[in-house]
Write a structure and sequence with these properties.
Layout lengths: L6 E7 L3 H12 L7 E6 L14 E6 L7 H11 L4 E5 L3 E3 L3 H11 L3 E9 L16 H7 L1 E2 L11 E4 L9 E5 H7 L12 H12 L2 E12 L12 H15 L5 H9 L3 E4 L2 E4 L5 H6 L10
Parallel strand pairs: 1-2, 1-4, 2-3, 6-10
Antiparallel strand pairs: 4-9, 5-10, 6-7, 6-9, 8-10, 11-12
């Protein structure tokens, strides 16, 4: 076992101050506090946060448009000082065991990458906080829904993952050394899509392995879902081409296939041709009603 004592929680933000407030509340409720929260902010000013936290907050500005997600994660990792890097989406409220499980998992095997369970919350059903301004975990558990494509981890400590495509940005945990061995994220990916899948391939190439991590849940706060994400059409196409250039295969096939069915693109072998961009009405029609929690 390796001695891993310090944990940095890392998050990215553009807007979503209310969601960030809830993320902070979740970290304050941890049975084992993080050593720091590193915030890569992709907006003019850093987000607001309380001045009485028991852990430090380090804010790093990341410029760029569209969303420079890969660059922001690299910037957060570079600024972090912890032995363990626990990436947590700004929309997530971690349960009280998140930091403890992150520390334990990396101490048990510092070469691996761990994916906690995520449960999706519905559009706001009142406040997710108690009157004492701490997360109402009973309510969160009652309303959180597991993605149907993800396993039930209630009776699981850790379990290996064969498909590296399971890596997702909502939450993943790894040691600083594993992050460095993989080389961080490729900043050629700009905007939405593919940077996580590319990082998974980098992890595979570096010899790391993915594991599901039981014993903790991250509750994803609701925001509008678009199916498919036509608002990100340009960056998805660009990043899909970049990924193909890197790895000789396509990613985001489900979105590219949907684009093809709509007559937006044509994919043949190594070529991805844009036939037309989606209209404003098509983008608006892709927005799902509030009861839809995930794509």
């Amino acid at each position: 076992m390796t001695a891993f004592n310090s944990v940095s929680v890392l998050t990215l933000i553009r807007g979503r101050q209310a969601h960030f407030d809830h993320l902070i509340a979740g970290l304050r409720a941890q049975v084992s506090q993080p050593d720091e929260l590193v915030v890569a902010y992709m907006q003019p000013d850093p987000p607001d946060y309380p001045d009485d936290l028991t852990f430090s907050v380090r804010c790093v500005r990341v410029d760029g448009d569209p969303l420079p997600l890969a660059k922001a994660r690299n910037s957060a990792a570079k600024a972090a000082e912890g032995d363990v890097l626990a990436f947590l989406d700004v929309d997530c409220i971690a349960d009280t065991q998140f930091v403890r499980r992150a520390r334990e998992a990396c101490a048990a095997d510092a070469r691996q990458v761990f994916l906690p369970e995520v449960r999706y919350l519905p559009a706001q059903q009142g406040s997710w906080m108690t009157d004492a301004e701490v997360p109402d975990y009973e309510k969160l558990k009652a309303h959180g829904e597991r993605h149907p494509a993800k396993p039930n981890l209630e009776d699981c400590s850790i379990a290996p993952i064969d498909d590296f495509g399971e890596l997702w940005g909502l939450s993943f945990i790894l040691s600083r050394g594993t992050w460095k061995d993989a080389g961080g994220m490729d900043e050629a990916y700009i905007g939405y899509g593919a940077e996580e899948t590319d990082f998974a391939e980098r992890l595979r190439a570096s010899g790391a392995q993915l594991y599901w991590l039981g014993g903790t849940i991250c509750f994803h706060q609701h925001h509008t879902v678009c199916k498919p994400p036509l608002q990100h059409f340009d960056t998805i196409v660009r990043n899909a081409r970049t990924f193909h250039d890197r790895w000789g295969r396509w990613c985001m096939d489900y979105w590219l296939d949907d684009f093809a069915r709509r007559g937006l693109v044509r994919r043949s072998g190594d070529e991805l041709q844009v036939l037309r961009r989606p209209s404003r009405s098509e983008v608006e029609a892709s927005e799902q009603p509030p009861h839809v929690r995930f794509s």
